């Protein structure tokens, strides 16, 4: 994880320096303020700078007149969800690691294993190298071997990292990193599709469940005021919009695929919402509710 942490730290530090940027000497002064950190050689910095551009899509440019490094178009950087997650995560980590007393007063959610695969996967993604993995599917004890997979992307959903890869048969697969038991990066390269777009891939999805037989449709839900305040502050999907708002309820609509992940999310809101449409989804929520009542009534 050392390379990953350095990439995030460099990005966060240069972004915080603003338009004037920061010199390599000052960058190293800040880095070595922690006695456990060795200075970052110039050659290592330039390699990490290129990896930041390739992996995270963040360009770091040099102001040759000032001999400083800066991130252009910082406003666009702060509009990007992934980039902001990375920066905020490290900023919090940096603050807590410097104050043991404060660290004991902040609690985090447990994160499943598998994050140790991130560095190898990002390296394979950057170099467009195929991978082979040993994977344990849910509710199965035996491992399944997937060879010559093309690692296209990574996605974080509900504290769990997922690998999006193309199998050797051309099918798109999603692997939870905590279920990977072994990973090998091969020397065989592949051509990354120019039209691959993670945002487009998950545009009509909620979560990771991607059943191609399920089509996107408008989902309309009536929420009471307490639940509506939560949905307003933390939308479930980028397509969320308000159709009607009163003193007693708010009606929300989303354009997405009502997959298993989305149904699970609706069930967490239980008595605070009513599914108005589509009818099939309303019936499914009702069926699940009746089943739960029978089991626990």
How is this structure best described in words?
It is a single chain. With 297 residues, the chain is of the alpha+beta class. The chain is built from eleven helices and eleven strands. The strands form three sheets. It has a five-stranded antiparallel sheet with strand order 6-5-4-3-7, covered by helices on one side. Helix 1 packs across helix 3 and helix 1 crosses helix 5. It is globular, with a radius of gyration of 23 Å. The relative contact order is 0.08.
Structure keywords:
single chain, 297 residues, alpha+beta, five-stranded antiparallel beta sheet, 11 helices
Task: Give a quick summary of the entry.
With 297 residues, this protein is α+β, with helices and mostly antiparallel strands.
Number of helices: 11
Q: Note the beta-strand portion.
A: 25-35%
Give helix and strand order, one letter per element, not per position: HHHEEHHHHEEEEEHEHEEHEH
Q: Could you give the count of β-strands?
A: 11
SS class: alpha+beta
- Percent in helix: 25-40%
Q: Unreliable runs, pLDDT <50, ≥5 residues?
A: none
Mean pLDDT across the residues is: 88
Distance between the termini: 48 Å
Tertiary shape: globular
Which secondary structure elements does this structure contain, and how are they paired or packed?
Layout: H1 2-16, H2 24-31, H3 42-56, E1 61-63, E2 68-70, H4 74-79, H5 81-97, H6 100-103, H7 118-127, E3 129-136, E4 143-157, E5 160-166, E6 172-176, E7 180-189, H8 198-201, E8 217-224, H9 225-233, E9 241-245, E10 249-256, H10 260-267, E11 273-277, H11 279-296
Antiparallel strand pairs: 1-2, 3-4, 3-7, 4-5, 5-6, 8-10, 8-11, 9-10
Helix pairs in contact: 1-3, 1-5
């Amino acid at each position: 994880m050392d390379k990953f942490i350095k990439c995030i730290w460099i990005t966060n530090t240069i972004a915080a320096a603003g338009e004037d940027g920061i010199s390599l000497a000052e960058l190293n002064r800040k880095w070595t303020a922690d006695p456990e950190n060795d200075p970052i050689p110039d050659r290592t910095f330039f390699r990490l700078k290129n990896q930041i551009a390739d992996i995270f899509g963040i360009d770091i440019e040099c102001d040759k007149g000032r001999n400083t490094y800066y991130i252009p178009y910082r406003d666009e950087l702060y509009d990007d969800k992934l980039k902001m997650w990375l920066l905020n995560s490290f900023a919090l980590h940096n603050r807590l690691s410097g104050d043991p007393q404060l660290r004991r007063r902040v609690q985090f959610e447990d994160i499943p294993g598998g994050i140790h695969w991130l560095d190898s996967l990002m390296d394979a993604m950057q170099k467009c190298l195929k991978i082979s993995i040993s994977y344990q599917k849910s509710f199965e004890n035996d491992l399944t071997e997937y060879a010559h997979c093309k690692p296209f992307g990574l996605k974080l959903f509900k504290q769990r990292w997922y690998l999006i890869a193309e199998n050797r048969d051309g099918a798109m697969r999603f692997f939870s990193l905590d279920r990977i038991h072994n990973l090998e990066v091969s020397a065989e390269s592949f051509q990354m599709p120019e039209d691959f777009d993670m945002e487009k891939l998950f545009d009509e999805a909620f979560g990771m469940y991607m059943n191609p037989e399920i089509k996107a449709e408008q989902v309309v839900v009536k929420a009471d005021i307490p639940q509506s305040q939560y949905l307003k502050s933390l939308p479930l999907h980028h397509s969320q919009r308000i159709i009607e708002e009163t003193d007693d309820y708010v009606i929300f609509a989303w354009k997405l695929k009502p997959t298993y992940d989305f149904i699970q999310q609706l069930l967490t809101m239980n008595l605070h919402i009513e599914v108005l449409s589509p009818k099939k989804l309303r019936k499914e929520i009702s069926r699940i509710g009746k089943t739960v009542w029978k089991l626990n009534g």
